[in-house]
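Reopening: Imelysin family protein still failing for me.
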Amino acid sequence: MNINRIKYGMGVTILAITVFIVACSKKSGTDNGPKADGFDKAGMLTNYADNLIIPAYMGLQDQITQLETTANTFLATPNADNQQTLKVAFKTAYLQYEQVSVNQFGPSERVLLNNFLNTFPADNAVIDGNITRGTYDLTQNSTIDQQGFPSLDYVLFAPDALAKFSGSSAANRKKYVQDLLARMKTLTGGVVTTWKNTYKAEFVQNTRSDAGSPIAFLINQFAYEMDQMKGPRIGWPFGKQSGGVQYPDKTEGYHAGISVSLAVANLTNLKKMFTGNNSGKGMSDYLVALNKKPLSDDVIKQFDLAIVKLNAIPDPFSTALANKKTEIEAAYREIQILLTLIKTDVASATGVRITYQDTDGD
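Support: Ran it again with your exact input. Result attached.
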């Protein structure tokens, strides 16, 4: 596997997910899932939509707007102080993105939001060419690694970034940043609008568990996000799928030095989604209603353990790869256990078939 060609977005699952997302809007009817007497699955889905998914997208929309405002201040006066202020706003917005990463279905999948917002590593050489020419089309699927958070990370925070905002290509560079942010705002705003106006009703109505249902997709996404934690976020840079060769510059949020913070935020949100934010209306509660309380408890405990182990790794992850190998290995091991619990045990208990194609065959 040539890790230089690995790009993390959601591209590897587009075909499989699209098939059953299309079905999601067409198939409701009789509940075909395992029997959980007395458990309100429509209420669970309503909780997800109203209290977790839509607010998370709205939060991302707000944070991108704030990031744009801070970026414009930096672009008007590109100095070290403004760059540092911008880095704080960038981190805040990127952390908020981790709240929606798991929700790549329905409106988000239709516009490939995760692909366009977080395919990493960015293609730095092509980005430099775009800036030099001053011409590009960010609506093309082929440009997913030229935009979003990873591209902003490179353009704004690479070691020589500040000097370039005063160089010969400064005007083109500033416009590129503005175009990236405008694209992020447009895509996220469209997802928010569609969820509010039409998609929420489709989502809540379908309480089935077969391929194409929200329940099946949520569990597939829980597992998929864990696969990405095991692979692109932690395992691949650490050398787990490359014969021990490490790739510190292939990490998420590399130039801003926030890779571990992003990973912790991602995993913390996955736990929040699994428990329905401890509302009594989450996937963990559904498992209890299916007489699988020990499994529910095991998954929650494993989330907590994996989060603790991740928190023991200091940022920047690229530096930790060299001097915190024991801590990274411990976190990787707990992530593997959590992935197996979700991908095998939780899927089996809920009657859900894992339909996405993972990246390393476990």
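The chain has one domain: 10-27+38-350. If you still see a failure, please send the error message rather than a screenshot.
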